[in-house]
Amino acid sequence: MGKTALITGATSGIGHATALRLARNGYDVILTGRRQDRLEHLKGVIRQETQAEVIPLCFDIRDKRAVAEALESLEPRFRAVDVLVNNAGLAAGLEHIDEGSLEDWERMIDTNVKGLLYVTRIVSGWMISRSSGHIINMGSVAGVQTYENGNVYCATKHAVHALSEGMRIDLLRHGIKVSEIRPGMVETEFSTVRFHGDKERADQVYKGVTPLYGDDIASVVEWLVSLPPHMNVTEVQVMPTQQADAFYTYRKQ
Ligand code: NDP
Ligand code: 8X3
Q: Catalytic one among 153, 206, 213, 248?
């Protein structure tokens, strides 16, 4: 029987590239996100190129009822999820703690932490019933370092880091792998979303740097899921060559 991967946030960036990579590797893929047109378009691309079954599920991950309804609508054979990529997430705003917007903070906490938990609560149960599975959480270098103005985004990614450790411990006896990927700068829609649609400001983030691209991180997911059953890479930090960590970036003039 073929394998199945569920990728949250597959409409853009890292999740989109991961869905393509896994489908090309023979996985049936369940794709989630809020933009139905993007989900349908990606389904078309995958169906044209591969034999993979593609199930688009359109919902807002912040809405626990919508998450449950969407996941429970899956036919039993698609609940046999082998790989869950908890990728949906965002940064909103970049301000000092006394100036940040409460709305931005709630969006980040509700998406990056609570949304990830809503999906994991259901899918980990399915994995436990089969004593098998691999959960890959998209953390960030911001999950282990905190930079000026990053406050709440960094806090959510620190939470993803702690949850990855906690999940790995709790799921140990069920034979379920948990890995955390911590990327540095990846050029996706991330910065445009962070700056509320200001593309010019977003482009400045990558000025003088060759950043990572979504497919670079997808290649790491591909590698993680290719490892033999007895081997788990618990954490991978992946940076552009020009970025040492959250603080040091070498920009060419
Ligand atoms: P993108 O903005 O390109 O993609 C984000 C994805 O998350 C989209 O598919 C979006 O789908 C989905 N998403 C966001 N909010 C919601 C929501 N409320 N409900 C459902 N889906 C949602 O960014 P990236 O690909 O860069 O980001 C993916 C992950 O990687 C995030 O967790 C991010 O924190 C992390 N990351 C990114 C880095 C970077 O530099 N780009 C570096 C380190 C980590 P839709 O809008 O259709 O709902
Ligand atoms: C995204 C990377 O450095 O903007 O998680 O926080 S950073």
A: 153
Q: What is the pLDDT of residues 49-67, one digit of tens each?
A: 999 999 999 999 999 999 9
CA distance 181 to 218: 10
pLDDT value at residue 160: 99
Cβ atoms 238, 224 nearer than 8 A: no
Domains of the chain: 4-238 (3.40.50.720)
Which three-class secondary structure state does DSSP give residue 127? helix
Whether residue 109 contacts residue 156, with contact meaning beta carbons closer than 8 Å, is answered with yes
Residue with tokens 């990053």: 150
Report the alpha-carbon distance of residue 78 to residue 27 in Å, rounded.
11
pLDDT digits (tens, 9 = 90+) for 173-198: 999 999 999 999 999 999 999 999 99
Using the atom order of ligand 1, give the atom closest to the CA of residue 34: 48
